[in-house]
Amino acid sequence: MPLSNPREAWESACERYAVLGVDAEGSLANLDAMPISIHCWQGDDVGGFESAGAELSGGGIQVTGNQPGKARTPDELRADIEEVATLCPGPKRLSLHACYGDFGGKKVDRDALEPAHFGGWMDWSRARKTPLDFNATLFSHPLAADGYTLSHRDPKVRAFWVEHVERARRVAAAMGRAQGSPCVHNIWIPDGAKDSPVDRAGFRARLLESLDAIFAERLPAFEIVDAVEGKLFGIGSESFVVGSNDFYLGYAATRRVFLTIDMGHFHPTESVADKICAVLPFVPGLLLHVSRGVRWDSDHVVTLTDELSELCRELVRSGQLGRIHFGLDYFDGSINRVGAWAIGYRSARKALLAAFLEPRAALLAADEAGDGFARLALLEETKVLPWSAVWDEYCRRAGVPIDGEFIAAVKAYERTVLAKRG
Ligand code: RNT
Ligand code: ZN
């Protein structure tokens, strides 16, 4: 139920923050300078539009749930993304996977990918003023079925995947050129094994060689930002992951590419937030895959957890937002997919807002004075400051539902669109 006088709540929140030296209005401007890249793959359980219609993502990632209403065509997926956009305030990008091309029912294998297969998306991007990011797809394919791609023992399989990623990078560069903003291209491979091979070094040496071959083609930095993503374990890769985080940290630092940090790809007791300032001095930049790990799954719908809040605070504190790309990565087919998408986006946006509203000067003063008590007390007080009034104001200005109106908006789309899909 909307408040009778939302203006009052916003103005009193501004006053409350001003006392702490925080400019609430400025925090909204900061939010508007920080795009969130929405991942296309929440809309159809990482299915994609290849004619083979790979249902199972395989490759160590798994989607569960059979909620009706899944997008079946590029047009349906675009309609759903547009609906998500009406539910989500702030600037957005769209992150596409290579298997989501407009292939027009034709079989186009991964080593035959062309920018033209993404013409429909590029038109959409221009019309919607939503820049694109891109991902090579190295799973859901017969040549990935035995669990290895770029590190495969067979040189022919490796060559196939190297060719795919080379082409994916060219697609990304074409997108970046068309949109006048570099397209972030991420590489994640599923390579690994249920039990440990003895020759782990061999797999890593081959991955290194494949990556170096891929990046030998120099593409302009104003068209493409390259990123590489490690992982801890996956389904079927419980004991060995070729592209571990150590591997990619070293790779990103020495080859000068971005490191992708996925919140679900670390030990549960490891602080992802703490990695930001540890890694930034050594890599050109970071791509974040904002996700939520739950036990063995690394891709639950993002919610406003302490981990997410802490991560966003560290991003803002770093003062390096220009070197950080913020992307979402989760998938859930067990609840309304559009709603799941929007929940994660809104929670991520809220965490960023709360971070921009942190009373930094007062906290730093306590830090410098060595006053641990005052710092802890202030951090605790910060958690319950009236930031939800600021969030409501942000939503109102963007013309999207505030909390309290959001659920009904999702249900309306379910009734009028999703429920009518076969
Ligand atoms: C998998 C990685 C990867 C994927 C997407 C679909 O564990 O997180 O980023 O989720 O490429
Ligand atoms: Zn990821």
Which molecules are bound besides the chains?
Answer: L-rhamnitol, zinc ion
Please outline the major beta sheet: 8 strands, parallel
Structural class: alpha/beta
Q: Please, what is the average pLDDT? A: 96
CATH class: Alpha Beta
How far apart the termini lie comes to 33 Å
Q: Any low-confidence stretches, pLDDT <50, length ≥5?
A: none
Would you give an account of this structure?
- By secondary structure, this protein is of the alpha/beta class.
- The protein has one domain: Alpha-Beta Barrel (TIM Barrel).
- The protein is 43% helix and 12% strand.
- The protein contains 14 helices and twelve strands.
- The protein has an eight-stranded parallel β-sheet, with helices on one face. The chain has a two-stranded antiparallel ribbon with strand order 5-7. A two-stranded antiparallel sheet has the order 10-11.
- Strand 1, helix 3 and strand 2 form a beta-alpha-beta unit.
- The two termini are 33 Å apart.
- The protein binds L-rhamnitol and zinc ion.
- L-rhamnitol binds next to strand 11.
Topology:
Blueprint: H1 6-19, H2 24-32, E1 36-39, H3 74-87, E2 92-97, H4 119-128, E3 132-135, H5 155-179, E4 183-187, E5 192-193, H6 200-215, E6 224-229, E7 240-241, H7 245-255, E8 258-262, H8 276-279, E9 286-290, E10 292-294, E11 297-300, H9 306-318, E12 324-328, H10 337-356, H11 360-368, H12 372-383, H13 387-398, H14 406-416
Parallel strand pairs: 1-2, 2-3, 3-4, 4-6, 6-8, 8-9, 9-12
Antiparallel strand pairs: 5-7, 10-11
Helix pairs in contact: 1-13, 2-10, 3-10, 5-6, 9-10, 11-12
The structure holds L-rhamnitol (RNT) and zinc ion.
